[in-house]
Amino acid sequence: MGINLLPVGQKFCNFNCIYCECGLTPESMKDISLPDARKVGDALENKLIEMKSKGSYLNAITFAGNGEPTLHPNFPEIIEDSIQCRDRYFPEAKIAVLSNSTLVQNQPVFNALLKTDLNILKLDSAIESTLKAINCPGGSFRLHEIIDALKRFQGKLIIQTLFLKGTHNEITIDNTAEEEIRSWLSILDQVRPESVMIYSLARDTAVSNLKKVGEEALNRIAKRVEQLGIPTQISP
Fold first, then answer.
1. Do the bridges between strand 164-168 and strand 171-174 make them parallel or antiparallel, or are there none, so unpaired?
2. Spatial separation of the C-alpha atoms in residues 112 and 1, rounded to whole Å
3. What CATH number should be reported for the domain holding residue 204?
4. What is the tens place of the pLDDT at every residue in 175-191?
């Protein structure tokens, strides 16, 4: 089950990833209305009651949507309420969050993510210039601060990385290059996530001139991650 804490039909994100299937982030995100935390909780409970009455199976409640879910000002409260609701009706289901990692330094957000079962955090490069070329973060962004926060999870996280090649704004991008992979592996070895998810382009992208990385190359990368003792999942 997916939950979108963001405006319906409009991207709301502090990244502007060149590969995003939701398109580019609007230049202005003012006057945007986000769903009320109580309404989210009520809607979730009503849906779980309905599913329970029908004998349905639920494996996960996933917070993702068309942007960055941790931007919702009541994200920690929503996660806490969702965990309690899950425990009442489908205690075997997992709570998952797909995040771009930018707010892991925020203590309430960090604490909320730590309570989830599947804390899936993006890291598309361990080299800041490459990450900025791919993800185009808004505002102040310091990769070393993000890495320090990722280490604080003490392994209770899943790193998700998209590999691609191409050009954008006259910058050549290839996060499969040897220097990129060595730097990325070094960070993985420091962060020690419980697992790693790697994938490449599968849908239309926000900008053109991007190329998918093939399954063979992804397998080679995965093998190097597994040599660190970290399980790796590939989505070619």
1. antiparallel
2. 19
3. 3.20.20.70
4. 999 999 999 999 999 99
CA dist 76 → 49, 97, 169 (Å): 23, 12, 37
Continuous H helices in the chain: 37-53, 75-89, 107-115, 128-135, 143-151, 178-191, 215-226
Please name the residue that has the structure tokens 């190359």: 217
Amino acid, single-letter form, for residue 224 = R
CA distance 167 to 224: 26
pTM, two decimals, is: 0.94
Beta bridge partners of 196: 159, 232
Q: How far apart are CA 110 and CA 47, in angstroms?
A: 27
**pLDDT score at 32:** 80
Distance CA 164, CA 199 (A): 9
Structural domains in the chain (count): 1
Instruction: Report the candidate in 45, 21, 18, 55 with the shortest Cα–Cα distance to residue 207.
Output: 18
Q: At what angle do helices 215-226 and 178-191 cross, to 10 degrees?
A: 40
Which parts of 8-36 fold into alpha helices (H)? none
Domain hosting 167: range is 2-235
CB atoms within 10 A of CB 189: 12
- Partners of residue 60 on adjacent β-strands: 94
Q: Residues 125, 19: contact at Cβ < 8 Å?
A: no
Tell me the residue type at 120: I
